């Protein structure tokens, strides 16, 4: 397993993150939610301006780097009762190498450093590969949510969480 470096995202990194997000999302999510919703969500949540605004609002973004190459990214924030993992993505050519697991270990350490008892995330109900990966890491499905995100689109997700003291 290769060792990754996780670096706090700077404003200068945001265009590279947006470019990586577009590549990952178009490949991974188009079969699940369709290209129209993917493009809408990229603009609404993963554009440079959207990410800059999220960071201003207290969301932490990190680059996942392997041998000086940006291979993924993650973002999270504290909602008071949990560390909410908003995004964790690894490029398709680097999946299956333990990078996602190392990134998740970093997230869990961040939750512990914030004295939060759990990590929580949402995942599309039809994103079966990611759901299974989260389960292998110890996450459990605890709820289902449907969120209207505008323009007739919804996020139809499971809420998953892992308690850190179990």
From TrEMBL:
Name of this chain's protein: GCN5-related N-acetyltransferase
Organism of this sequence: Kangiella koreensis (strain DSM 16069 / JCM 12317 / KCTC 12182 / SW-125)
InterPro entries: Acyl_CoA_acyltransferase (IPR016181), GNAT_dom (IPR000182), MshD_Acetyltransferase (IPR050276)
Coiled coil: none
Domain N-acetyltransferase: 4-165
Signal peptide range: none
Keyword Isomerase attributed: no
Keywords: Transferase
GO molecular function, one term: acyltransferase activity, transferring groups other than amino-acyl groups
Top-level taxon in the UniProt lineage: Bacteria
Keyword Transferase: yes
Gene3D superfamilies hit by this protein: 3.40.630.30
CDD domains in the record: NAT_SF
Entry-linked Pfam families: Acetyltransf_1
């Amino acid at each position: 397993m290769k060792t990754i470096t996780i670096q706090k995202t700077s404003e200068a990194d945001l265009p590279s993150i947006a470019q990586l997000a577009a590549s990952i999302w178009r490949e991974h999510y188009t079969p699940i939610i369709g290209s129209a919703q993917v493009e809408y969500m990229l603009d609404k949540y993963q554009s440079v301006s959207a990410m800059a605004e999220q960071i201003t609002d207290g969301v932490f973004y990190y680059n996942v780097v392997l041998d000086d190459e940006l291979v993924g990214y993650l973002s999270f924030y504290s909602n008071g009762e949990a560390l909410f993992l908003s995004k964790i993505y690894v490029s398709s050519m680097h999946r299956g190498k333990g990078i996602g697991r190392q990134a998740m270990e970093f997230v869990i350490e961040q939750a512990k450093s914030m004295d939060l008892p759990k990590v929580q995330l949402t995942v599309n109900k039809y994103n079966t590969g990611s759901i299974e990966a989260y389960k292998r890491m110890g996450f459990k499905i605890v709820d289902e949510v449907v969120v209207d995100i505008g323009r007739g689109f919804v996020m139809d997700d499971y809420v998953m969480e892992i308690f850190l003291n179990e």
